[in-house]
């Protein structure tokens, strides 16, 4: 009997091991085939001294947003005037670009496309920056000095790189007689750092009521970046495309009682009661949402990129591709993982007491939650109430915004393939990953038009420089700004490919999260490809081989961005 049991256990263990290994082999990867952007390209936009000087001049405007209703509007007005005079093709009366100034300082550009059947796309950025007050910079805050290959100034990466990158790309395209098929909107709000109520919200209202926009193909905004040192074992830079954005809620916890003299304290003090409630919240964090959001795909993709020594490489692939079993292990609390897989809890303020010998009659604490896309504000509050388990503690919602919906990021998503493919095209040595943006932008005002909002800033940094956002010595590499211009240029061109002609091609040729071909039965791959695409696209200049893999073709009147002159497929 015991022997039979041992044999059964051994068989089950063997089956489990086989299942774990099979799941780790059938891991996800990314392949992208857009022509790599190179300095030798005829259409590569060089960062000339003139373009660099325009960017530096724009950075010198102190367009600071201090708080709602507190902005340097004079600097905003001067920057808007500078922009209008510095990009003549964009702002010419004869230009095909229509500019509408919204609420005095926000800018909305419209480039009318020739094909009304195509949904418009929106590229956005913002003109304002956060203050530098109280920060000990080693460089002047707004001088935009260039030193050791970097431009230093507030706003370099958040987010005047987007403003001037887009404008330079548009100016270049208009010089080439750009006439897109798709209609493009370009939106520069002036108060993103204080929630965008006067900028992005008004622009969205104008789009809906005046432009009669009902739906957008996608929105491209600032967000995540190309990151070195993202995780140990990932030797290539991580191109992280934000496909969702955490929400937030600020809660005020309070408890009131009778004051008294400290010489006769009660069994429980007001401060003690509230402190225990806060301690319970920190000890019993919001539940892990691993598997309920995009982080599952992030971790599975990451497992294919990690270069670790044996046997750590095998262990990483097994763990990250079998989250149904190893979820508790991966959910272990450390700050980076914690922010990815759950709603975070941060006690940011605690106030109580008026004098050292007087018992406090009231105590208040503020708790900031950054809400995972799989949860709502009400669910977060309900969890807190259950964990505190003390009816004496009052919980009040001060303010909050729900998390954004998760944008499409699978292989069938035309919009994601365009944004991710363009990022890979410009940052050629990187590896694309979807991500959750843990900060807040003003994109929530545009969610009425699409849930496909992609948050990516074309900036390449090391993990150790992440604290420069809103921090000391904010900077961007000179060559990175050049890449940013080319990113927006290619994004405008790639997004102009009609879905009917190129969308299905992108599903296969730029397929994100497809099973690695060498590790998948050939007939299964062929079935997937056959089901995904039945297209002959002369304009794109591509064809599909009989075995389901893409190959270059010399035909086609216009190669466009998908045209290949070299071997088109490179597995990442």
Automatic annotation (TrEMBL):
Residues 244-383 form the Peptidase M20 dimerisation domain. It comes from the Eukaryota. Secreted enzyme that regulates the endogenous N-fatty acyl amino acid (NAAs) tissue and circulating levels by functioning as a bidirectional NAA synthase/hydrolase. It condenses free fatty acids and free amino acids to generate NAAs and bidirectionally catalyzes the reverse hydrolysis reaction. Some of these NAAs stimulate oxidative metabolism via mitochondrial uncoupling, increasing energy expenditure in a UPC1-independent manner. Thereby, this secreted protein may indirectly regulate whole body energy expenditure. GO terms for cellular component: extracellular region. Signal peptide: none annotated. Belongs to the peptidase M20A family. It comes from Macrostomum lignano. The keyword Disulfide bond does not apply. InterPro entries: Bact_exopeptidase_dim_dom (IPR036264), Pept_M20A (IPR047177), Peptidase_M20 (IPR002933), Peptidase_M20_dimer (IPR011650). This is M20_dimer domain-containing protein. Pathway: Lipid metabolism; fatty acid metabolism; Amino-acid metabolism. It catalyses: (9Z)-octadecenoate + glycine = N-(9Z-octadecenoyl)glycine + H2O; N-hexadecanoyl-L-phenylalanine + H2O = hexadecanoate + L-phenylalanine; N-(9Z-octadecenoyl)-L-serine + H2O = L-serine + (9Z)-octadecenoate; an N-acyl-L-amino acid + H2O = an L-alpha-amino acid + a carboxylate. It holds the Pfam family Peptidase_M20. Keywords: Hydrolase, Metal-binding, Protease, Zinc. The keyword Zinc applies.
């Amino acid at each position: 009997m015991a022997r039979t049991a041992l044999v059964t256990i051994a068989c089950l263990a063997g089956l489990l091991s086989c299942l774990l290994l099979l799941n780790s082999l059938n891991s996800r990867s990314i392949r992208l085939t857009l022509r790599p952007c190179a300095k030798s390209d005829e259409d590569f936009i060089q960062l000339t001294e003139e373009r660099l000087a325009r960017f530096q001049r724009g950075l010198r405007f102190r367009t600071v947003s201090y708080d709602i209703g507190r902005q340097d509007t004079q600097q905003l007005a001067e920057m808007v005037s500078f922009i209008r005079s510095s990009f003549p093709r964009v702002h010419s009366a004869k230009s095909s670009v229509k500019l509408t100034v919204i609420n005095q300082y926000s800018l909305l550009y419209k480039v009318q496309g020739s094909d009304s059947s195509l949904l418009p796309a929106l590229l956005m950025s913002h003109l304002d920056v956060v203050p530098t007050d109280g920060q000990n910079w080693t460089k002047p805050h707004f001088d935009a000095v260039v030193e050791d290959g970097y431009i230093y100034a507030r706003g370099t990466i958040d987010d005047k790189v987007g403003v001037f990158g887009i404008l330079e790309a548009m100016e270049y395209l208009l010089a080439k007689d750009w006439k897109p098929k798709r209609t493009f909107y370009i939106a520069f709000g002036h108060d993103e750092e204080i929630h965008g109520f006067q900028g992005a919200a008004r622009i969205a209202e104008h789009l809906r009521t005046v432009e009669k926009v009902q739906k957008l193909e996608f929105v491209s905004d600032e967000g995540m970046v190309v990151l070195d040192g993202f995780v140990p074992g990932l030797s290539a830079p991580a191109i992280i495309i934000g496909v969702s954005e955490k929400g937030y809620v600020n809660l005020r916890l309070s408890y009131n009682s009778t004051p008294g003299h400290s010489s006769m304290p009660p069994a429980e003090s007001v401060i003690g009661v509230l402190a225990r409630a806060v301690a319970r919240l920190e000890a019993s964090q919001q539940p892990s949402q691993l598997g309920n959001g995009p982080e599952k795909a992030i971790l599975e993709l990451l497992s294919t990129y990690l270069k670790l020594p044996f046997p750590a490489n095998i262990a990483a692939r097994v763990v990250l591709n079998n989250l149904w079993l190893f979820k508790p292990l991966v959910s272990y609390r450390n700050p980076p993982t914690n922010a990815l897989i759950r709603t975070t809890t941060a006690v940011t303020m605690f106030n109580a007491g008026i004098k050292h010998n007087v018992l406090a009659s009231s105590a208040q604490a503020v708790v900031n939650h950054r809400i995972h896309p799989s949860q709502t504000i009400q669910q977060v509050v309900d969890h807190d109430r259950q964990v505190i388990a003390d009816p004496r503690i009052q919980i009040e919602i001060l303010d909050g915004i729900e998390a954004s919906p998760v944008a499409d990021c699978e292989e069938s998503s035309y919009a994601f393939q365009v944004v991710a493919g363009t990022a890979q095209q410009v940052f050629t040595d990187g590896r694309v990953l979807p991500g959750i943006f843990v900060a807040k932008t003003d994109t929530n005002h545009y969610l009425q038009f699409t849930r496909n909002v992609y948050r990516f800033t074309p900036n390449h940094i090391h993990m150790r420089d992440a604290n420069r956002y809103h921090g000391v010595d904010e900077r961007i590499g000179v060559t990175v700004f050049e890449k940013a211009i080319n990113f927006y240029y290619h994004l405008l061109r790639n997004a102009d490919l009609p879905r009917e002609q190129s969308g299905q091609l992108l599903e296969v040729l730029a397929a994100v999260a497809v099973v690695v071909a060498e590790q998948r039965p050939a007939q299964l791959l062929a079935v997937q490809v056959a089901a995904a695409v039945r297209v002959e696209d002369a304009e794109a200049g591509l064809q599909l081989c009989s075995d389901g893999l893409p190959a270059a073709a010399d035909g086609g009147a216009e190669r466009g961005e998908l045209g290949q002159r070299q071997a088109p497929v490179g597995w990442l």
